[in-house]
């Protein structure tokens, strides 16, 4: 029995589909591993912010929380394929993009804006000092954002 090359095509297509599935799974697994490692790192940074706040370093604590929120929101934009046009987006830019893409609700958006306002008190020497209560809210709010917004 003589078989031409077309007999190999279904076998080849089956192998190609197996490779495509493996590639897709690998990408998903790598993204999951990145998310887990990032979550662990963020937890450590929030713990550092708590320790700084307890020691009276309110601005430093607030700044760390702001960076954590910013990184988390940027990661969410990547996960949801949201393109950010600004070269160095801040919390407000990322927050707005997530709201516009219906990833977060208006109450979540407002909550994150409130945290961004506290963070801005910490990052800028102009104006008043952040209060202990505001920093406590920012630390707790950062933990809440990390655990509830994804």
Order of helices and strands: HHHHH
How many β-strand runs?
A: 0
Here the CATH topology equals Four Helix Bundle (Hemerythrin (Met), subunit A)
Shape: elongated
- Low-pLDDT runs of 5+ residues are none
Mean pLDDT: 90
Number of domains: 1
Structural class comes to mainly alpha
Main sheet characteristics: none
Distance from first to last alpha carbon: 59 Å
CATH homology superfamily:
Nucleotidyltransferases  domain 2
Strand content: under 5%
Q: What does this 3D model show about the protein?
A:
This protein is mostly helical and 150 residues long. The protein has one domain: Four Helix Bundle (Hemerythrin (Met), subunit A), CATH 1.20.120.330. It is built from five helices and no strands. Helix 1 (9-54) packs antiparallel against helix 5 (132-148). The radius of gyration is 22 Å and the shape is elongated. The N and C termini lie far apart (59 Å). 25% of the residues are buried. The model has no long low-confidence stretch (mean pLDDT 90).
Q: How would you summarize what this structure contains?
A:
This protein has 150 residues and is mostly helical. 75% of the residues lie in helices and 0% in strands.
């Amino acid at each position: 029995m003589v078989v031409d090359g077309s007999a190999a095509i279904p076998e080849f297509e089956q192998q190609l589909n197996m490779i495509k599935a493996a590639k897709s799974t690998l990408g998903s697994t790598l993204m999951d591993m990145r998310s887990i490692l990032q979550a662990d790192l963020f937890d450590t940074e929030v713990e550092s912010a708590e320790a700084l706040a307890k020691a009276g370093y309110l601005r430093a604590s607030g700044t760390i929380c702001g960076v954590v929120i910013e990184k988390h929101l940027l990661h969410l934009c990547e996960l949801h394929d949201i393109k950010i046009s600004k070269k160095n987006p801040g919390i407000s830019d990322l927050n707005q993009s997530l709201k516009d893409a219906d990833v977060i609700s208006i109450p979540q958006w407002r909550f994150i804006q409130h945290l961004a306002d506290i963070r801005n008190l910490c990052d800028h020497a102009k104006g008043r000092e952040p209060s202990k209560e505001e920093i406590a809210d920012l630390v707790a709010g950062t933990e809440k954002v990390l655990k509830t917004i994804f």
